[in-house]
Write a structure and sequence with these properties.
Elements lengths: L1 E4 L5 H9 L3 E4 L8 H9 L3 E4 L7 H6 L5 E4 L9 H6 L4 E2 L6 H16 L2 H9 L20 E5 L3 H14 L2 E5 L5 H7 L2 E2 L2 H7 L2 E4 L13 H5 L6 E4 L8 H9 L5 E4 L19 E3 L8 H19 L15
Parallel strand pairs: 1-2, 1-3, 3-4, 4-5, 6-7, 6-9, 7-8, 9-10, 10-11, 11-12
Helix pairs in contact: 1-12, 5-7
């Protein structure tokens, strides 16, 4: 059996595969493969270790009939048509939990950056616009004792809430499909409906898994229900927000600011008007970009591949129903 890796991954994962004698091929170029090229490589191999957001849809599976398993180099698996994988008994693995702290660090960083307009003020220096002291200019806001709303209080959301509680004594509210009893016990988090989350959050941070039903759920109507001082943070998936509506909300004082590590679409073009706003801080999807997180992701992905080749259940399988 052979596995194709479409982008190079950290050595920690490569070494695991080598030690187990797995026969693998890494994308021989540094370029992002076209869909046709990816399908060609998948037809020459038995498994795919996928890095990036390739659209692994029904058509992809139809064109890759020999594929026996997919290991994703990510937590999210919305790029994979899971029903298509299930119908072919193809297990799909991800890399859960290992990047929770790193991604929540970025959400925490963006929250503070937006609150103090740090990206904009840095640009002022570059533009020779420091000027003299003005006690009324470019003021930010403090976060002490304010309310953090979490949309999707899973592992990453919990880490974000824990930081905000410890650093700023923030009150935690959240909206989930189900109650997070650990967060309620340890952080005194309060479960609320979506409307209440919008209306009561001083900071609203998105940490949910993306599904089609939540596509652009943060839109004109949602922003209109938020506080005027509210900060919107998204480190999950860009498709959660309608960016035209977000721009309008930020420029018309409907909400106070926004911090994004993910955009819609992605990557964001350099002429996107959001980049020019003083109350918007944007990063190029660096949530998991630490040595520790990326090494751990490589290990998880390799472990999923190894289990597949040994005829065992993937340890981090998102569609366990294929083993029934």
């Amino acid at each position: 059996m052979k596995v194709f890796i479409n982008k190079n991954i950290p050595e920690a994962g490569i070494k695991l595969l080598q030690d187990k004698g797995i026969n693998f091929t890494i994308n021989p170029t540094e370029n992002v493969l076209s869909r046709e090229e990816l399908i060609k490589f998948c037809n020459e191999n038995d498994a795919l270790l996928n890095v990036g957001s390739n659209n692994l849809d029904e058509d992809f599976f139809q064109q890759c009939p020999n594929l026996k398993g997919i290991a994703l180099f990510s937590v999210g698996f919305d790029s994979v048509n899971i029903p298509s994988a299930n119908s072919r008994k193809i297990p799909v693995g991800n890399t859960p939990d290992v990047l929770s702290r790193a991604t929540s660090d970025v959400a925490f960083l963006l929250m503070q950056s937006v609150a103090r307009k740090s990206f904009f003020n840095h640009k002022r220096i570059l533009n020779n616009d420091w000027g003299s002291f003005d006690p009324l200019a470019n003021l930010g806001q403090e976060l002490y004792g304010k309310t953090l709303g979490i949309f999707g209080l899973g592992r990453i959301g919990f880490e974000m809430a824990k930081k905000c509680k410890a650093a700023f004594g923030m009150n935690i509210i959240y909206h989930n499909r189900s109650h997070n009893e650990t967060a309620e016990k340890e952080l005194d988090a309060k479960y609320v409906n979506f409307e209440t989350l919008l209306s009561q959050s001083d900071v609203l941070s998105v940490h949910s898994n993306y599904t089609e039903e939540n596509n652009e759920i943060f839109n004109k109507n949602a922003f209109a229900k938020m506080k005027r001082n509210a900060i919107f943070i998204n480190t999950a998936r860009g498709k959660f927000q309608n960016e035209k509506d977000l721009f309008d909300a930020l420029t018309n004082d409907i909400i106070w600011g926004a911090g994004l590590d993910v955009t819609n679409p992605e990557p964001m073009k350099p002429d996107n008007p959001l980049l020019s706003l003083s109350n918007c801080c944007i990063l190029p999807h660096i949530g998991s970009a630490t040595y520790e997180a990326r090494n751990a992701m490589a290990v998880c992905a390799a472990q999923n591949i190894i289990a597949l080749f040994e005829g065992k259940k993937m340890p981090f399988c998102v569609n366990e129903e294929v083993y029934i």
